[in-house]
Design a protein that fits this description.
With 248 residues, this protein is an alpha/beta fold. Helix 9 links the parallel strand 6 and strand 7. The N and C termini lie far apart (49 Å).
């Protein structure tokens, strides 16, 4: 990024709670877990995962060389490996809706010991077959439309046990799907948080079709916010796009 563009971008940002300057703070603050076991710094960086839960411990991932490469590049005000989405998004110098601004919310120390946000997209369990979706994110599509076997369940009890020491340090958690309220692993994690008396703000992106006592219990104990995916304001539109959904 050229110096003039960087200066203009920095004028829109608040560095008062940062002890290190970086173009993006995703690798300083966040871990994103996907269905293949890869751990990324954000949802957009597919090409340079920080590690994989089947090969690396969380400690190795958070303190490993691959995440350090990203931190170092961004501290030089350069897009790091795998940062193609934000490079393309800001190529014209428009930063107003830049994805990387999401990570400016966190206070960052020079030696950040713990991640402050975790995002989970670890299962494709879903009851809908939306026309724009595919089996990677919908078990119903994978079984019926693609006629493929279920995705393997990679996130074990041992993984969640290793996660537990990280939870008290988190400032935010995000749960994606599939449909989060059909993912057993999320309930396992939420129950651990409730048992430990944690009140980490949780954001859930849901299709809005699920509600039961287990969901109500989680909502009663944890601060939760929601994005409800609808894709239509009428019965005909919604049900034609979100196959298996019922408008009412």
């Amino acid at each position: 990024m050229d110096e003039a563009t960087l200066k203009a971008f920095d004028k829109t940002r608040d560095f008062s709670n940062k002890s290190v300057h970086a173009l993006c703070y995703a690798p300083h603050s966040s871990l994103y877990f996907d269905t293949s076991g890869n751990v990324r710094v954000c949802c957009h960086n597919y090409a340079h995962p920080a590690g994989n839960i089947l090969k690396n411990s969380l400690d190795e991932i958070w303190s490993g060389e691959k995440i350090k490469i990203l931190r170092a590049a961004l501290e030089r005000n350069c897009f790091g490996p795998g940062c193609d989405f934000c490079r393309f998004q800001t190529a014209e110098g428009n930063f107003a809706n830049a994805a990387m601004l999401r990570f400016d919310r966190f206070a960052i120390s020079h030696d950040q010991l713990w991640p402050l946000q975790m995002e989970f997209s670890i299962s494709n369990s879903c009851n809908l077959e939306c026309v724009m979706c595919r089996g990677q994110w919908s078990s119903a599509i994978r079984a019926r439309r693609e006629k493929l076997p279920p995705l393997p369940r990679l996130y074990s009890d041992a993984f969640f046990d290793s996660l537990r020491k990280y939870l008290p340090h988190l400032k935010r958690m995000r749960f994606l799907g599939g449909e989060p309220f059909l993912i057993a692993e999320y309930f396992k994690l939420w129950e651990a948080m409730i048992a430990d008396g944690l009140t980490i703000p949780c954001h859930v992106t849901t299709n809005g079709t699920q509600y039961n006592r287990n969901i109500e219990r989680v909502m009663d104990h944890l601060p939760m916010s929601f994005a409800v995916s609808m894709d239509g304001a009428t019965k005909a539109t919604l049900e034609s796009i979100r196959v298996n959904a019922v408008y009412e």
